[in-house]
Specification:
With 274 residues, the chain is mainly beta. Strands 1, 3, 4, 5, 6, 7, 9, 14, 15, 16 and 18 form an 11-stranded mixed β-sheet that branches. It contains 3 helices and 18 strands.
């Protein structure tokens, strides 16, 4: 009787084990992780935002260039391989200034330039633009500062000013951004220094280009990160801003390019220390 009892228990345990082994485990519930928000990187250095105040800007709203802020520079003047023409410059109605390089049916090239000469200038401060680069061989595009006395050949950049190229770009070397300084005129006594920075994404989308200029040095930035600083040829006089396209051969043979080409500027902003 006891034997039959234990036999019954064994049969029961065997059935239970069989049922347990034959049942598939419930799958683990799926867990959806919350979306990860990448850290917001300011295109303007945080120190500038904290310690400086914006005193001038153009967001390029509307459909016409604000002539209280900009003038057409060198309009009608032949500059190297092209003629400067205001017809190459427009606002797209979406918050951008579009500056084209064009080629007409006769093979003549046109570029564009705008400047704050006579309207706004500053000594020291932080200067920044946001821009989308051109796509063709031939042109080079730039955001720079200039003075009307820089051409005097006295080797005195402090008094006469400096051409300060906050950025220059062309497609002959599409991964490079150029920062350059020129002083002592453009003749035989011309002097210059500069550097280039390799950024493989620079030819895609919008990027910011900034210059912090004080009485001791220049500090250059791309996308909020410092790329070069120098105490060479520091201007000590007010200077005005220029946005430009050029056709000089530096950016490659324009005969191998595709036109129209263009650079697009989203904004220009100037800050002074608080």
């Amino acid at each position: 009787m006891i034997t039959n009892y234990f036999r019954a228990l064994l049969i029961c345990f065997g059935v239970m084990a069989s049922l347990s082994c034959g049942k598939k485990a419930d799958p683990a519930p799926e867990v959806t992780a919350p979306p990860v928000t990448p850290p917001q990187v300011s295109p303007t250095p945080l120190r500038i935002l904290n310690d400086f105040k914006m005193i001038w800007n153009d967001e390029f709203d509307g459909t016409t260039l604000d002539l209280t802020k900009w003038m057409y520079r060198a309009d009608g003047v032949v500059r190297n391989l092209a003629t400067a023409s205001r017809q190459t410059i427009s606002l797209d109605g979406k918050g951008n200034l579009v500056m084209k390089v064009t080629k007409d049916a006769n093979g003549k090239y046109y570029v564009g330039q705008v400047a704050t000469d006579g309207l706004f200038q500053a000594k020291y401060g932080y200067f920044e633009c946001r821009a989308k680069m051109n796509e063709s061989l031939g042109p080079h595009v730039a955001f720079w500062l200039q003075s009307n006395t820089m051409g005097i050949e006295t080797n005195d950049p402090a008094t006469n000013g400096v051409e300060i190229d906050i950025f220059e770009y062309h497609r002959k070397k599409p991964d490079l951004v150029f920062h350059n300084l020129h002083w002592n005129g453009y003749g035989t006594n011309h002097m210059s220094t500069g550097t280039n920075v390799k950024l493989t994404s620079i030819g895609m989308g919008y990027h910011t280009f900034g210059l912090e200029w004080n009485q001791n040095q220049y500090i250059f930035y791309v996308d909020g990160k410092e790329t070069w600083r120098t105490s060479t040829a520091v201007s000590q006089i007010p200077q005005y801003m220029i946005l430009s396209t050029e056709l000089t051969g530096w950016g490659g043979d324009p005969e191998t390019g595709n036109f129209p080409d263009q650079v697009v500027f989203d904004y220009v902003r100037v800050y002074l220390p608080k």
